Amino acid sequence: MKRPPGVSCAKRRDGSASWRYRFKHGKESDGKDRYVTRAGFDTMREAVEAMALEKARRRMAPRIGGVDKTFGQFFLEWLDYAGSAWAPSTRQVNRHHANRAISRFGDIALSKITTELLDREQRELLLYGKKTNRGRTALSAKAVKETFTLVKAALRRQRNGTMSLPIQRRTSTCPASNANIRLSYSLSSLKAS
Fold this sequence. Notes:
The protein has helices spanning 44-60, 71-83, 88-105, 115-128, 141-156, and strands spanning 7-11, 17-27, 33-41, 130-132, 135-137, 169-173, 182-186.
């Protein structure tokens, strides 16, 4: 097999070969090229196959162009992309959680999503997130946690860095219950990886 462009080999300290791939994938916010690099493959074939899979995965991934999408648009695209790997029952449960988040802040532009907004929406869902015949009541802490776990997973995939979130830890409590349930999430995990 002839070595394709983007695949190279280096020697490890023990003398064995280590294969890697590198390819260009878009631009950074400052206009520089963005590269994807993975190393540590034992054979050239492994590196070539991994590069092909990664390129295919990145072609399918939702991207944010120059126009600022709303959270709802991005979230639905991400859900379709990520949901292709989920079991049907998981897809259905996650769609339910996604609808909950989209109904709360789906019309807000991605660049306007802040930690304060996420904290406020999390508290609102804990206190008034469930519709009943008598009005709104508290939503279970588990349901809120699952909803925001899904939101964080989607936001982690956002690649253009429009969110400027400080690195700190926020904790929300549920004053509606006697158990003082605590939900916490790391805001650094929301940054693009």
